[in-house]
Amino acid sequence: MKFVSRNGTLHLRRRVPKRYEDVEPRAYVWMSMHTDLEDVARRKAPAIWDSMLEAWEAKMHGDTGDAEAQFEAARNLAGIRGFRYLPAAAVAKLPREEFLDRLSRVARKDGSIDMREANALLGGVPPPQLTLSRCLALFWDLARDRIDQKSEDQKRRWRNPRIKAINNLIDVVGDIPLSDLTGDHMLDFRSWWMDKIAAEGLTKNSANKDLIHIANVLRTVNKMKRLGLDLPLSDLSFKEGDKKTRPAFS
What we know:
3 domains, mainly alpha, single chain
C-alpha cells in the first residue's frame, strides 16, 4: 500500500474494479486519507475503500427500472455520503450551508454532473408507487420481529386478519397506490362496513378490527420505507357498546 502526499495530505490510488465501470467513469480513483501520518493512513484506508465500494454498489442498484430499488439505492447512497435522503422540495428548504454542501458533492472534477449523486443528494428519485397489495406483501418482512417467537399456527392467526382487512379495503377502493389513498376512500370503506354490519348482523368490533389492521399495515410500510406520507387513517372507528374480549395476537 503506497501513499502519495498531496499538499501535505496522504492519498491512496486504487484501480476501479471492472464490476463498477458502468457507474464510475474513472479507471483509477484517488482517496484522501485526511492525515499526513502514514500509520494513521494505513489504519483508515480499508474503511475509506469500503465506503467507495458501498457507494458504487448503491449506484449499481439504482440502475434499474424497479422504482423500489431506485428509491432504496438513492437513500442508501445519501446515507453513505453522510446525508439523509430528502425529496427535492425538502432539499430546497434546507439551510443554505447544507444545501450548498449537498450541491458541491454532485459535480465531478471535470465539471460534469454525476446524476446518481444528484438524485441521491438532491432528492431526484420519487418514492415508489406502492399499491395496497404490494404494501401487504412488504409488511410481512418489515414486521417479522413481531412474530419470530410465535408458532406456525400463531403466525397464521396473526396474518389472516391483516390479509382479510387489506383485501376488504381493496375490494372497496381498488388496488390503488398508497400515495393516492385519501380520506374519501377511507370514509367509503367505513360506509361499506356500516352497510355490512346492518345487512349481516355483524358487530362494530369486526369493523374496528379491520380498521386497526389496515392502519397497522399501512403505517408500518410508510414508516419503514420512509415514504413520508400523511395517511388518512385516524378517527374512523365505530363506537362500540358492550366490550368484547380481545382476541389473542391482535
